[in-house]
Amino acid sequence: MVTKGDMLYAWANDKANRERGETGGAVTALLKYVLESKMVDAVYAVKKGADIYDAQPALITDPNEVIQTAGSIHCGTLLVTKQLSKCVLNADPKMKIAVVVKGCDTMAMYEMAKRNQINLDNILMIGVNCGGTVQPVMARKMISEKFGVDPDTVVKEEIDKGQFIIVTADGQHKGISIDELEEQGYGRRSNCRRCKMKIPRQADIACGNWGVTGDKAGKATFIEVCSEKGVSMMDKAIAAGAIEVETAQQKGIEIRGKVESAMLKLADKWRKKDFTTMGTGTERLEAIMKDTSKCIRCYSCVESCPICYCEECSTKKSYLVTPGTVPPDFMFHLIRFVHVADSCINCGQCEELCPAEIQNSRIMHMIQNDIEGMFKHVPGVDMEMPVLTVALENEERERLAATGTDQIFNIFKD
């Protein structure tokens, strides 16, 4: 019997899953099993599109199609949660879904659940360790300039043991230190460098290759069981013969801890570098105003942010932000900061998709980091409400219409 907190080595019984999947194919086998057993109605995961630089979200209901999602894609920078909510759950809110999630995805799940955008009771989260992702354009540039390899010949990439590693169609393996690449302006997205959610323990299970040693190295997945839902899934999958498991070796557990610790220290280094270089006080405000002055008001940051969920966006209110002006008034960005900053999960989507290349994620994460320091609230790790908790939007709009004031709390006396 599996118990919460267990650390296991797991691998698929099915040969196709073992060969096509990462490190023994345990995740692929589990996804296939939960569909076959009707534990869930669908699987939502990422699959490779035209090449390794093309990550595509996939909603799968046929167990035989789960194999399409096997393998990791570090050059795919999707955040699956908002797409899941808008494109799938809006149509069928009661659908039970198994979702493959990295750290920022799990954080988004919790923050969206707080805002009633997702019902976690209907979600089975299979977490995967994440050392970071690389923008497709950056990946191609890096592979060409630093590795001296045609990006179109690369069939596999991975981040392992502090290196970005590529495999070409003719079987060549090449690896370069992530530190070396990033000091020269290549490497992971900036938000990934700052991320401290490397092992997503908020998921029902957390899976990866860190800590798999001995004869199981490369042939099994390290799984940490993090919830009772995770316990139930693992027990049933083992009983059904979908996967096999054994207790993780103590040496492997220690290695996994050291890998995580090293990545957290690296994240602290990047936070210090990214945040302190923007200065403090007036200097920081001027830097933010200068960067955001490039805004073309496309609303990509709003549409992609998992924290933004308002039915009527305040940035579109003429009495707050002058309509039709480009760049918009700085109030546009102040509204975003106030609404999002206490709950920013540093997913990077606002910066990733900004056509004006504004450092949105860096700015928002910097503000969130300051708020976290003051109030000790860490977004996305549990269901604790954010510091700047708000009332239900529809009720507040009715109250605003009835009273003519946006004052929620009676803190000002006549």
TrEMBL record:
SUPFAM superfamilies: alpha-helical ferredoxin (SSF46548). One of its GO terms (molecular function) is metal ion binding. Transmembrane segments: none annotated. Its cofactor is FAD. Keywords: Iron, Iron-sulfur, Metal-binding, Oxidoreductase. Residues 286-306, 335-364 form the 4Fe-4S ferredoxin-type domain. InterPro entries: 4Fe4S_Fe-S-bd, 4Fe4S_Fe_S_CS, Co_F420_Hydgase/DH_bsu_N, FRHB/FDHB/HCAR-like, FrhB_FdhB_C. The keyword Metal-binding applies. This is Formate dehydrogenase. It comes from Methanooceanicella nereidis.
